[in-house]
Structures are given as C-alpha cells and as structure tokens.
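[Discussion] Sanity-checking designs against the backbone

I'm trying to build intuition for which residues belong where. Below is a structure token string of 404 positions. I'd appreciate it if someone posts a full sequence so I can compare it with mine line by line.
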C-alpha cells in the first residue's frame, strides 16, 4: 500500500487526499471480491450440508417410525451410523449374503411373520397371497422350491423387468403395461438419491439393477434375503392398454410396422374400408393377431408363465386397479415412502375404465373372446381376477379388481 501511495504522489495531477481516497476505494473493492468469494463457498457448503441432512433426516424418521411401530414391519439389522462406503464386489454367494445381512439397511420380515402390520393392509395382502399360493398348488400343482436359487427356477422365467435395490433389500416385478414405466422411474430416482449419493457413481442404466444383470451367485444371495413384490393388472385392461400404447399411439418404428402387418393379415379390403385407418388395425384385428400369432411379446404376454410366478414366494402383491393404496402400503413397508412415490400416468389408468373396456371388447367375436380368456387364464386365476362369462359381463370396477 505504501508503494502505491508513493507512486500516486509522484503523479503531479494527484494530491495526497486524492491518492488516499483512490487507494481506499481500490482496497474496498478487493476486500468486497474476497468476501463474495467466501460467501459463495460458504453457500455451497451449506447446500451440500442441507442435502446430506435431508437424506439423514429421512433415514432417522424412517428408523423412528420403525421403533414406534407406526409403519409395517421393518426392522433394523444394526444401528445406522450414517452413509456407509459402497459394498465391494463379492463373488461368493455365502460372503455376499453375509455382507448384505450386515449392511445398515432394513431387514424385511416375511409376510407370514407380519404380526404388527396395519390390519386392513394385512387382511388384503393375506387374502391375495393365500389365494395365489392355493391356486398355484391346487390348479397348477406348483409350489416354490425349498431353496430359491436360479437353477431351481424354470429356465424360461424372465427377470428383465424385475428391479432390485441393495440399499433397502427388495425387488419389484412389474410387467409391461402395469405402470412399469412409473415404477421403473421411481426406482431410478431412489437409486440416484441414495445409492449414487453413497457410492459417488455417475453412470446409470436401468438394466444395471434388474435381476437379469446378476450372475447366479449374486442372484441366489438376494432371492432368499430380499423382500419380494409384484404388481399385476386385470388381463383385459392390460391387453387394451397394450393396444392403445403400442399400436394406436406409438411412435416406435417397430410397432408402426407391426400395426401395418396386422392390417395386411386380417383386413381383406384395405382400400375399400374408408372408415378405417389403413395403417392401424382395429382392436378385433389386433386381438386376433395376439391369440393366433404372437402372445409372447412382453407388452401383452401373460404374466404368470413369463415370471413363473407360482415359483416365487412373494411378500406383497399390488394391483394397478388399487395402486394408490397398494403403492403407499408397499413404500411404507420398505421404509422409502419419504423418498419416492408411484404416480401412474393418466393414460395408463384410463385403459382400465369399465366403459372403455366394454366398448372395445364388444367388437370381438365370441370365439375370439374365449381365446383371450384361455390365453390369460393363469393370470385371472392366480391373481384372483374375476373371469367374465362374455364380453358384456363387465359391469363395474369391482369386476376388474377381483380378490382384494
């Protein structure tokens, strides 16, 4: 500062007072810049601390709810001591099971031990689970294997839409057109908010947290430990939803081409039917294609044979028809109700409208409708959906919900 003052005085047009004022202003500006930089740094630290506090507060609230028994049965494996480092890769199934059990995340009590569950939810789930188990045993002579290993399950079982989470020890199976996009997006948010925060990972793909992505040892270690949930839907509304989403309103080139192929297969006079879109099949034409040519497409294939559901001892069965209640019950059970929520798209729910279903299925012939019921008979039976006598035997929302 003394050097600056001396230099200023040597300039003849500056007086002592002017030099002093100039240097004071310069000093104040420099100090202001330094203070602003410090404030910005402090603000960033505060925001990071608030983000950490929100996650830790959510964990603490979740623990207090567990201890107070205000939520369904979630118990803590051990005291949580803040965010833990990422779980190291383990190839041995035994070591992985031990590490999973030791993680500071909830250990879920299986459904037959849920003595403290909310009574209304307990009754609803017990009814659904008992119906599923009894039907699998009596009708299909199938029970879950004593040891849930990948080798013990049928080889054709699909797990490409079964999403797991190591932080909260659960997996959820959801077939296409059963709010699958909603559930997948919510689980992606949970993964980003908790797991990525803890592991500092950046790259993320949906396929990285499906059971299909696991080798046999890692798959087996989780199957016995994790809470098992599935979301299902009335087969009639699911088939209609697939038609509306993948045939009528799709922007995917594959399904646009598929729609044209169906028209060419089942419409005799394409040019003469002026009232019909030459590129879009009617619901009857689409259903004929499904029952005669292709009932294996994952967007409309039956759920029970695809997931081999009779071999899986689920702890929770949710239904799209009651997803508001069921999703709340499930998220509270898993202790993640403050972290994510399921909000199905209005379009998906509208496909379950009774009038819309009646108006579309009324266009089917009696023979085609019987074929639909035959293809989806396992889904109707196992998950307790009422089988209509004919196309007009769908009169209320209760007819679509079934065992509830």
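Best answer:
Here's mine. Compare freely.
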């Amino acid at each position: 500062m003394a050097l600056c003052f001396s230099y200023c005085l040597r300039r003849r047009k500056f007086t002592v007072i002017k030099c002093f004022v100039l240097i004071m202003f310069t000093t104040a500006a420099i100090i202001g810049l330094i203070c602003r930089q410090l404030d910005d740094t402090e603000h960033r630290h505060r925001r990071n601390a608030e983000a950490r506090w929100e996650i830790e507060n959510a964990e603490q609230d979740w623990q207090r709810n567990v201890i107070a028994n205000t939520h369904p049965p979630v118990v803590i494996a051990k005291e949580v001591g803040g965010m833990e480092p990422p779980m190291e890769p383990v190839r041995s199934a035994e070591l992985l099971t031990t590490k999973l059990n030791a993680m500071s995340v909830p250990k879920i009590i299986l459904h037959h031990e849920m003595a403290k569950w909310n009574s209304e939810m307990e009754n609803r789930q017990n009814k659904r689970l008992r119906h599923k188990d009894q039907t699998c045993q009596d009708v299909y002579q199938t029970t879950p294997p004593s040891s849930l290993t990948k080798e013990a399950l049928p080889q054709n079982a699909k797990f490409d839409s079964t999403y797991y989470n190591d932080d909260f020890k659960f997996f959820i199976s959801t077939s296409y057109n059963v709010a699958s996009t909603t559930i997948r997006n919510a689980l992606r948010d949970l993964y980003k908010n908790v797991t990525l925060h803890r592991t500092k990972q950046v790259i993320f793909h949906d396929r990285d947290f499906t059971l299909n992505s696991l080798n046999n040892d890692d798959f087996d270690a989780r199957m016995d430990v994790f809470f098992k949930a599935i979301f299902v839907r009335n087969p009639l509304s699911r088939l209609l939803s697939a038609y509306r989403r993948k045939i009528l309103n799709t922007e995917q080139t594959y399904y646009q081409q598929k729609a044209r192929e169906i028209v060419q297969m089942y419409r005799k006079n394409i040019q003469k039917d002026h009232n019909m879109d030459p590129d879009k099949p009617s619901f009857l034409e689409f259903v004929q294609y499904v029952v005669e040519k292709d009932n294996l497409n994952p967007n409309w294939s039956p759920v029970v044979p695809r997931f081999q559901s009779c071999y899986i001892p689920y702890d929770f069965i949710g239904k799209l028809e009651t997803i508001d209640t069921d999703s709340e019950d499930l998220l509270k059970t898993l202790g993640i109700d403050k972290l994510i929520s399921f909000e199905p798209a209005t379009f998906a729910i509208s496909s379950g409208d009774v009038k819309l279903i009646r108006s579309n299925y009324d266009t089917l012939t009696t023979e085609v409708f019987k074929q639909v019921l035959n293809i989806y008979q396992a889904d109707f039976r196992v998950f307790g959906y009422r089988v209509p006598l004919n196309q007009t035997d769908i009169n209320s929302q209760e007819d679509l919900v079934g065992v509830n």
